[in-house]
């Protein structure tokens, strides 16, 4: 067996199951789960119809590169959404469909990392655990870059020692962030782009939450958008990961894409050809329909705004709570340890949240996930309101 398998940490939800084991919550309260970032809004009907109308495509072996019409739809969406002139996005060489970004984030690291030179993969801390597992299995050392309140929950690139940058082959950024919802600016992207040029590493930007934002007039900045604005129109060293899971409430479709630096994308295509993970043809047509429509995405954002407003209005008098600029998470500080808070809340209120320490590691003398819980506002509005009331009752009862 691969010896690196022994380095993998238990997944956050394994830890959560252990934390809840042996506890019997009150039977008179229906269970509410706000721990998993799985969208619960309905998948738009037109996406389902596009899938059904192309089931005859199941008779075909799909190509790893995907249908040209899908890559073109993605390139056109990138151009519209991020104000990138169309001539800078080549659907033939710079866009690659993937079966959801979880699979792609993992496999991309295996293709990019050269294990012969003591490589480092830098990642935000807290983080999506796929970043860490992918780095470890590729033979790289993770470097956990703390994202803390003092820096608006964004990575502080100035804090990274030069010896780390010299060994860095890949850095993950996640904007809007999971779990904090913080958004990187053009200036922050520009600083990282200069570092990538200086030290020759790849930037992998996880942008799965860019379409869930609070201010309709101020959508989050994307890495390719920033690269183009600062003169890197070929997106050298830049690769982004996008998904329909959150944008279109289609997590079961397993559809996303990778786009950016043509040289990197083409090498990654070579890897994927052997990896054996082409997107089924019916899924590709459903994806085309999704990327070509924005109205369902605007409606989706409005549903989340309503939940954030109701949830925060109930809790703002009893705890420190703020509205993130994007994502569907609330990163809530806890008055006691995050694990105690989550365990007692489940025991008393039959409500499941995810302890922040399950999403982070000790780094530079701190664990930035401690004394926080991640709340995913994915349930229907009524359930989110009920959850907020239960949390309020719990906090007041603990005082």
Question: What name does CATH use for the topology of the largest domain?
Answer: Aspartate Aminotransferase, domain 2
Q: By CATH's scheme, which homologous superfamily of the largest domain applies?
A: Type I PLP-dependent aspartate aminotransferase-like (Major domain)
| Number of spatially distinct domains | 2
CATH architectural designation of the largest domain: 3-Layer(aba) Sandwich
- Give the percentage of residues in beta strands: 5-15%
Number of helices: 14
User: Poorly predicted ranges (pLDDT <50, ≥5 residues)?
Assistant: none
Computed over alpha carbons, the radius of gyration is 21 Å
- 3D shape: globular
Strand arrangement, largest sheet?
Answer: 2-8-7-6-5-3-4
**Helicity level:** 40-55%
CATH class of the largest domain: Alpha Beta
Mean pLDDT: 97
The class by helix and strand makeup works out as alpha/beta
Question: What is the CA-CA span between the terminal residues?
Answer: 51 Å
Biggest sheet features? 7 strands, mixed
Describe the structure.
This protein is an alpha/beta fold and about 400 residues long. The protein folds into 2 domains: about 5-40 and about 295-399, Aspartate Aminotransferase, domain 1 (Alpha-Beta Complex); about 45-295, Type I PLP-dependent aspartate aminotransferase-like (Major domain) (Aspartate Aminotransferase, domain 2, 3-Layer(aba) Sandwich). Helix content is about 40%, strand content about 15%. The chain has helices at about 10-20, 45-55, 70-80, 100-110, 130-135, 160-165, 185-200, 225-230, 245, 260-275, 280-290, 295-315, 340-350, 380-399; strands spanning about 30-35, 95-100, 120-125, 140-145, 170-175, 200-205, 240-245, 255-260, 330-335, 350, 355, 370-375. It has a 7-stranded mixed beta sheet with strand order 2-8-7-6-5-3-4, sandwiched between helices. Strands 9-12-11 form a 3-stranded antiparallel beta sheet. α8 links the parallel β6 (about 200-205) and β7 (about 240-245). α2 (about 45-55) runs antiparallel to α11 (about 280-290) and α12 packs parallel to α14 (about 380-399). It starts with 11 loop residues before the first helix and ends with a helix. GO terms for molecular function: pyridoxal phosphate binding; succinyldiaminopimelate transaminase activity. This is Succinyldiaminopimelate transaminase. InterPro entries: Aminotransferase_I/II_large, DapC_beta/gammaproteobac, LL-DAP_aminotransferase, PyrdxlP-dep_Trfase, PyrdxlP-dep_Trfase_major, PyrdxlP-dep_Trfase_small. Keywords: Aminotransferase, Transferase. Its cofactor is pyridoxal 5'-phosphate.
């Amino acid at each position: 067996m691969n010896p690196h398998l022994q380095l993998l940490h238990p997944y956050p939800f394994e830890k959560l199951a252990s934390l809840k084991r042996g506890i019997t919550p009150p039977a008179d309260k229906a269970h509410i789960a706000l721990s998993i970032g799985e969208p619960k809004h309905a998948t738009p009907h037109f996406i389902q119809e596009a899938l059904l109308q192309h089931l005859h495509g199941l008779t075909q072996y799909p190509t790893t590169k995907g249908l040209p019409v899908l890559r073109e739809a993605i390139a056109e969406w990138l151009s519209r959404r991020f104000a990138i002139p169309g001539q800078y996005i080549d659907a033939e060489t710079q866009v690659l469909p993937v079966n959801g970004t979880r699979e792609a984030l993992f496999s991309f690291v295996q293709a990019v990392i050269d294990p012969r030179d003591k490589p480092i993969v830098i990642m935000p801390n807290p983080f999506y655990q796929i970043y860490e597992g992918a780095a470890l299995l590729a033979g790289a050392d993770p470097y956990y870059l703390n994202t803390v309140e003092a820096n608006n929950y964004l990575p502080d690139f100035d804090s990274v020692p030069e010896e780390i940058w010299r060994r860095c082959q890949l850095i993950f950024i996640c904007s809007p962030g999971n779990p904090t919802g913080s958004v990187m600016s053009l200036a922050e992207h520009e600083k990282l782009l200069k570092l990538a040029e200086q030290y020759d590493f790849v930037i992998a930007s996880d942008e799965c939450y860019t379409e869930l934002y609070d201010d309709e007039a101020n959508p989050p900045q994307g890495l390719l958008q920033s690269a183009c604005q600062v003169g890197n129109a070929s997106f050298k060293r830049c690769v982004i990961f996008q998904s329909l899971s959150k944008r279109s409430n289609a997590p079961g479709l397993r559809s996303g894409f990778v786009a950016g630096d043509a040289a990197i994308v083409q090498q990654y295509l070579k890897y994927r050809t052997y990896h054996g993970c082409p997107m089924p043809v019916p899924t590709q047509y459903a994806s085309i329909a999704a990327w070509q429509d924005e109205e369902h995405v605007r409606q989706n954002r409005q549903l989340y705004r309503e939940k954030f407003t109701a949830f925060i209005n109930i809790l703002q008098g009893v705890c420190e709570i703020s509205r993130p600029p994007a994502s569907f998470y609330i990163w809530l500080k806890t008055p006691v340890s995050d694990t105690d808070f989550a365990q007692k809340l489940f025991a008393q209120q039959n409500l499941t949240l995810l302890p922040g320490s399950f999403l982070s590691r000790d780094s530079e003398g701190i664990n930035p996930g401690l004394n926080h819980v991640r709340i995913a506002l994915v349930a229907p509005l009524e359930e989110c309101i009920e959850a907020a009331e239960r949390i309020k009752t719990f906090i007041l009862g603990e005082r």
